[in-house]
Design a protein that fits this description.
Elements lengths: L1 E5 L3 E8 L1 H19 L4 H4 L8 E6 L5 E7 L4 E7 L8 H15 L4 E7 L3 H6 L3 E9 L2 E9 L1
Parallel strand pairs: 5-6
Antiparallel strand pairs: 1-2, 2-3, 3-4, 4-5, 6-8, 7-8
Length: 149
């Protein structure tokens, strides 16, 4: 677990954990962002990969879980979600950095992700490069990206 001070004086406590520890903590964030805000069907928001993945759990200074993401065993980062009031504070970047550090710890040489098109600049700032064409996933435009570690 680590505590960092982000730009704008937002404090974040980060933990990377397995699904047994993370599920109850991160699902309210994922549901708020993907199901409620973006209209992703609840039936596809969870999948069998959750149990096989490592999950970033980000808490604010009050201990409330406000952001998450996951790292699949093949190096795919996904389910990146930050509660709306904390977007733009560096919280998503902190989650992404934690997941990349976990990938390094696990011996991965590269990470990949499918970025929502509106978030491409965010991932570019973290060293990701897009490849391939725009495609639809859960009715939302995405583009594949990768980053060497």
């Amino acid at each position: 677990m680590s505590v960092n001070r982000l730009p704008g004086q937002v404090s974040v406590e980060l933990e990377v954990a397995d699904w047994a520890r993370a599920e109850a903590l991160v699902m309210p964030v994922r549901t708020a962002v993907f199901v409620v805000e973006q209209g992703v069907p609840e039936s596809i928001e969870r999948d069998a990969m959750d149990a096989l993945s490592r999950h970033a759990i980000a808490r604010d200074s009050g201990g409330v879980v406000v952001a998450t993401g996951r790292l699949l065993p093949d190096g795919h980062i996904g389910r990146m979600a930050v509660l709306a009031p904390l977007r733009g504070t560096g919280m998503g970047g902190a989650v992404l950095q934690a997941l990349m550090a976990e990938a390094v710890r696990l011996g991965m040489l590269e990470v990949v992700l499918n970025a929502q098109v509106h978030a491409l600049d965010f991932y570019r700032r973290h060293g990701f490069v897009e490849h391939g064409d725009v495609f639809l996933e859960a009715g939302i435009e995405h583009r594949a990206m990768r980053r060497s570690l």
